[in-house]
Fold:
Amino acid sequence: MNAAAEWQAHSLGLAAALAALQAAGTLGDDALAQGVLVAVATNSVTRAATAVAAGGWTYGLRVVASLLASMGAAAAVGLVLAL
Structure:
């Protein structure tokens, strides 16, 4: 397994573990949200770095733009749900 795949697996595993802790009542909603945000950010940075390494800066910038758009949409949904 290469380093990028390993980071992705760890970040997704972290999100799942945080969700299980929150479901068990041992982790608050704010801590869950912050932990998932860290996991998603780590995953996005890994994807962006892999895209730049595999396809060059032009391809990497397109991937970064897509990741930023999806994170912005997720943040908007989070804000609406928090109302």
In short: Residues 3-82 form one domain. The chain has one domain: 3-82. The first helix runs from residue 3 to 23.
